Amino acid sequence: MEKRYSVNKKSLRKAVLALLMLILAIIFIRFAARERVILEYSSEYVAMAELPSQLSFTYYEEAEWKDKITEINGGKNLNGKLTVGKLEKLLKQLSVQEYVTCPKGFFWKQVSRSEWNDVYEQILDLLDTEGRVSATNLIFLMDEKEEPNENGSSKRLTQKGYYEVAQGINYFHVCDMYQVYVMENRMIGISSKCKGPLMLKNVFVHTTSEGKAELLFERQKISLDIAGLKEKITNTICDLEWTEGRVTAIYKKEDMISGKVLSFNEEQIEISGYGTLEHTGALKIYKTYGTVEELDESKLVIGNLQADFVVAEKQVCGIILKEPASIEIVRVLLLNEGGTPYHEDPVFVTDFNGTLTIGENTQPVEAGQPVKAAEFFKKDSDYLKIALDDEKGNIYFSDTAGAYTSLGYKGTMEIRKYPEGYGVVNELSLEQYLYGVVPSEMPSSYEREALCVQAVCARSYACIQLMKGDYAALGAHVDDSTSYQVYNKQEGNEQTKLAVDDTVGEVIKYQGEVAEAYFFSTSCGHTGNMGLWNTEEGGKYGYLQGISLLTDGSEPVLEGEEAFSEFIRDGAVNSYDKDSPYFRWQAEISLSKSEEAISKAVAERVQASSGNVQILKQDGSQGTGSDLAAFGKVKGFSVGERGAGGGIRTLCVSFEKGTVNLLTEYNVRCVLGAAAGSLKNQNGENLDMQLLPSAYCTLTPTEDGYTLYGGGYGHGIGMSQNGANGMAKEGMSYIEILMKFYQDITIENIYNEE
């Protein structure tokens, strides 16, 4: 009996020891599972690291959820997998445990993804009252991952564009297909794998060969495996179909038309010879000459660019450029007398016979016959074009009797009907356009070489604007106002025409690109740089440097208020601009009389240019436009900073209970101009101007305000027109003058480029 007891005791010890070992193994496995970083997707479990982003739609931010889920996870980290026990704690944290059906099982049991999805959908039903979270199916097109941002997120490219991917769920590889949860273009969680089929629509296929396809999508070059494709596809638009992580079909878009873009907006594009067509959203533009790449809409030069348009289901789904734009045509939006784009009831007359095109129909028009635009528009037509049989002819705005009310316009006239009125666009050659710009921007009486300078600057400026497409929605490149270049407001003469002809095609280039040749009327004896517009100096604007215009070539001393004041008050300064009445000017400001005007002007600049206005409360904290009403009376002005050449870059306006810092020369001129009650040029003549002539001025205190001593007229950046005229009088050529005003440039001919 004693021996049997001993055997049983030993067996019991072994059983207890085995049980302890099993418990230790379970604890070790659970601990290891909790500590392990989850790097791959699985349908069998959900990583704890996935939860903070998925719950970020609730009353806690994602960073707060990271802390809370770390506590639920044992206080160590976000590694490991979601279990039944942790899920129960999570539901209590959300205060929804009584309303959500939770998976059954021991507290250590892992929660499968389908179980979590069921719980998550219940949470969404309860807490996502605004419907911020949705589910969508995505194909991941690139395996490369961008560097995470500050919150650990990265971006991934899908068939629906780029999505930000929250930290903890970035398991995706190229051609993976998942249903994901999305909030505000950010992937916050993964629901499941997706089998498809899914479509990648309107993608540019550069080439296919040996089971590979080279694509361009969202400006990324993508290489994909495509098995079984027999047809060779080159440089066209296709739809690709994915099933279970691989491309299973390519549908080539066969229909293509050719023409020039005349206008475009977010929904439609107008093509020469085809009228207006719908497009599929953001225009997809691809060039195949030189390097093959995707371009943005700024490269779609209207009126000058022959292109192929891929069309499917009556929509333009892609644009292919096989050659660069030939910069020969300018399309000018002719503003109404109030300076806005729409005319109420325009009437035109021609001095040569021509044709009227209404929609798809054409009919003759006789010289002198008034064309009342409203009479030609029917319900099914919103386009009218006037063209002449002879290029010597002109088109005029007129009254209903046919009497001219404008100067003559070359080229063609296009009238489009909009809900706001009629838009009028004058299309003509670049050189003909300059015939109307040069005399409108510079007096025809100026020296021939100065007019040539103006022609080259105007041509350069126009070429830049052609690439921008600011008025693409209205079918134009520029308008005819000072916002771009004044066009056809002054009659030209033989000298202005010769200035254009003698410089035909010539533009200013800086570092191989056409330079934006800014110009203005008159300097104070020195020009400025882009700092006056609160824009970074140098870089692509390195050619715009402040230069002295003193005739002896010396550099004036301008540093410090005292030195600048001495310079700007010296009316005997010998500068190339000295003959202009605006070379020196003087203004008086009475604070007591102009206080209301100053406050109003400051508020207007906040509304119009908030990024260039700094509002500081009495305690030094940042304010907003709504705080201005409580700032009290205007106490005075002071110069915060001057730019190159002495122009005021920052003007400080002091109030009883705050300060406003005005950045940019234009803001400075607006406010000081509103304050000025008396303004005279250097000849003593009174000037009636709401905008101060320039920001090159000094403020000398008086008993009730300031006397402003200033010089120059205009923004002061680039070429001074009066300075150029002064240089021309001294015998300088237009090339020498351009090289003086613009640094490190070349003069090249756009018509000689390959």
Specify the biggest β-sheet: 8 strands, mixed
Q: Please state the CA-atom Rg, rounded to the nearest Å.
A: 35 Å
Mean pLDDT over the full residue set: 90
Proportion of residues in helical segments: 10-25%
How much of the sequence lies in strands comes to 25-35%
Alpha carbon gap, first and last residue: 112 Å
Structure description:
With 754 residues, this protein is an alpha+beta fold. It has five domains: 48-133, no CATH class; 198-252, OB fold (Dihydrolipoamide Acetyltransferase, E2P) (Beta Barrel); 256-321; 329-510, no CATH class; 561-710, no CATH class. Helices cover 23% and strands 30% of the residues. Strands 18, 19, 21, 22, 24, 26, 27 and 28 form an eight-stranded mixed β-sheet that branches. Strand 38 (697-701) and strand 39 form a beta hairpin. Helix 8 packs antiparallel against helix 13 (721-729), helix 8 (448-468) crosses helix 14 (734-741) and helix 11 runs antiparallel to helix 12 (665-675). The termini are far apart. The mean pLDDT is 90.
